[in-house]
Design a protein that fits this description.
Helices cover 31% and strands 26% of the residues. The protein is α/β, with parallel strands linked by helices. The structure holds adenosine-5'-triphosphate and magnesium ion (MG).
């Protein structure tokens, strides 16, 4: 389980995350919703130790993520599909991640299969399409068969078959008792995929609820809850 505890992150004068607390329980898909600039990506980076909190903390099984020797086996994350070293072939990139996290190299081919990139293994990352890069990022998250998974707008660039595949994947991960957190702006997809949602505005918690507690329309509930909490 992931626990965000009074997390605050300032960038100079910008208060990106403001005393935010919520949990990502195992066995469920948690949708992470909020307007552009609400602080979702900042929160995800704080969980991974990529951003240092100004105060508060984010804990993975009661420990900071950075304290794990093989972090990819604890939390897998697909944050920015553009971030990987793009001169490397897809398979080489995954092999390097596997090696540095004590993951068996044959897992790389399993994952390439799983994300539908088996035919793209030798292609350089920069030569992959947006959706293929997204699939590769999702593959990197799955590599260590981690107990928790973080996805930042994973549907960006995925084709209809890919969206359907990702929906089934996340349901399966939750069934395997993993903790799954997905940020997205696609309310209809989140309504289908998530068991519960965390909604933030201006870095603050607006709601942490089971999806059915928010009524028949997630979009309506989202608009109501975020009114007056948008940046743009
Ligand atoms: N590295 C940074 N330096 C300065 N300000 C930043 C930095 N990263 C984020 N911010 C600011 O922090 C706030 C939260 O940004 P964040 O990227 O977390 O939002 P988000 O909820 O992920 O938005 P989106 O839905 O557009 O992805 C914004 O005001 C943003 O401009
Ligand atoms: Mg973001």
């Amino acid at each position: 389980m992931i626990r965000i505890d009074a997390l605050t992150k300032r960038y100079g004068a910008t208060l990106a995350v403001d005393r935010l607390s919520f949990t990502v329980p195992t066995g469920q898909v948690t949708g992470f919703l909020g307007a552009n600039g609400a602080g979702k990506s900042t929160t995800l980076r704080a969980i991974l130790g990529l951003d240092r909190p100004t105060s508060g903390r984010a804990l993975v099984h009661d420990r900071p993520y950075s304290s794990y020797r093989h972090p990819l086996r604890v939390v897998g994350a697909a944050l920015d599909a553009q971030a990987a070293n793009d001169g490397l072939p897809a398979r080489t990139h995954l092999l390097a991640l596997a090696r540095s996290n004590g993951i068996a190299p044959n897992r790389v081919d399993e994952v390439l299969d799983e994300v539908g990139l088996e035919g793209m293994a030798q292609r350089r990352i920069r030569a992959l399409s947006l959706g293929m890069k997204q699939r590769l990022a999702i593959g990197a998250a799955l590599l260590g068969d981690p107990e928790a998974l973080l996805f930042d707008e994973p549907l960006n660039g995925l084709d209809p078959e890919g969206i359907r595949w990702f929906r089934a994947l996340t349901a399966r991960l939750a069934e395997q008792n993993k903790a799954v957190l997905i940020s997205s702006h696609l309310m209809s997809e989140m309504a289908r995929t998530a068991d519960r949602v965390v909604i933030i505005g201006h870095g603050r918690l607006l709601a942490e609820e089971a999806i059915h507690a928010l009524g028949p329309s997630l979009e309506e509930a989202y608009i109501r809850l975020t009114e007056g909490a948008t940046h743009v």
